[in-house]
Amino acid sequence: xxxxxxxxxxxxxxxxxxxxxxxxxxxxxxxxxxxxxxxxxxxxxxxxxxxxxxxxxxxxxxxxxxxxxxxxxxxxxxxxxxxxxxxxxxxxxxxxxxxxxxxxxxxxxxxxxxxxxxxxxxxxxxxxxxxxxxxxxxxxxxxxxxxxxxxxxxxxxxxxxxxxxxxxxxxxxxxxxxxxxxxxx
Length: 185
Hints:
Helix content is 10%, strand content 66%. By secondary structure, it is mainly β. It has a single domain (2-184), classed as Beta Barrel (Porin). The radius of gyration is 19 Å and the shape is elongated.
């Protein structure tokens, strides 16, 4: 029964999107991310992540619905991470955003993301998972190639601090440079 209800929901959703698709953008692309890397330990001391871990690549996928000429609501999934010889980490999760279209080419956006953080130590084979609420603010340029496809690129700033199981706070704030494709309906 659950599978039938899920399939009916997906069918209704796809049908609704097809009839309301005017103003819908599907977006996706690759990212290059920087991370602040400051670690505030519970005992009051502070440290920095190793330089090899202060940047990494990732990807995003999502959609936006333009409910007016200049305002859209969107959502999607964002993933990034980094690694060196000792440690590998990733931050990933869903995001929601509001987008303001300044003109045909320039958009400003802001949103919230609920990130899952996972770190794996390669020598001792240990891992740790935590969650955190982050914020994304930025701007993007969109260049239409055809009526229904556009190239996009932009710069965002991510505000994100994760508290681990030892009450240490790790700052993953930093820039997120992105480029991708937008399908315009």
